[in-house]
Amino acid sequence: DTHLLLTGGMEKILRVYDLNKPDVAPKELDKSPGSVRTVAWLHNDQTILSSCTDTGGVRLWDVRSEKIVQTLETKGPVTSAEVSQDGRFITTADGSSVKFWDANHFGLVKSYDMSFIVESASLEPKSGSKFIAGGEDMWVHVFDFLTGEEITCNKGHHGPVHCVRFAPGGESYASGSEDGTIRIWQLSPPNVDAEEAVDTNGKPKAGAEEIACKIEGFHIAKEEKAGE
């Protein structure tokens, strides 16, 4: 309901703020085993997901008891955790792996190994047929959810990509980079099926044309196509 704000950081404390009561001290959950890298709400305001900067796994917190009730095990620290819009999946990134977990029974559904270190991943919210990933190679990749095959690759950042997220409607997605920019990419055409996103040779279509705009500071400037 957008009334609560969840934060985490280096001091190993999760804080829940009531935005309707700005003068009230936040509720604190202070038993994180390490500095907090990611936080997210799961299903309601009584369950929280978090991960640590130097410890593997995603932890499920019961807000009422202020305790960790379950851990989704990963080999490395989880740098991104997202709950899908329909509440079915948890998407995580650790090392060079993107994983999809059942958000109700917490079993591992799919796991894909990438050719690069992944910092962030996001599942397309409407059909769930695609996911995006970005990381140290400075590119933003679009993959088929069922097969893990790469559909397209967007180049434009000049530093590692630390965060990627789909828009709620799935028609576009954003990437935030160490180069100080947020780029917004348009699916072309929006929500096209995977088989329609290849050229006549069966290869993924180039993603350079998908750039919608680039955000630098508070200014939004249209990207110009190459050659213009």
Automatic annotation (TrEMBL):
Q: Which Pfam families match?
A: WD40
One Gene Ontology cellular component term attached to this UniProt record is: SMN complex
- Keyword Lipid metabolism found: no
Q: Which InterPro entries match?
A: WD40/YVTN_repeat-like_dom_sf (IPR015943), WD40_repeat_dom_sf (IPR036322), WD40_rpt (IPR001680)
The UniProt keyword set, sorted, is: Repeat, WD repeat
Extract one GO BP annotation from the record: spliceosomal snRNP assembly
Record's signal peptide: none
Could you tell me which residues the WD repeats occupy? 29-71, 154-188
UniProt keyword annotation of Protein biosynthesis present: no
Molecular function (Gene Ontology), one example: RNA binding
Q: Which PROSITE patterns match?
A: WD_REPEATS_2, WD_REPEATS_REGION
Q: Which domain of life is it from?
A: Eukaryota
Q: Which family does it belong to?
A: Belongs to the WD repeat STRAP family.
Report the protein name in the record: Serine-threonine kinase receptor-associated protein
Taxonomy of origin reads: Eukaryota, Viridiplantae, Streptophyta, Embryophyta, Tracheophyta
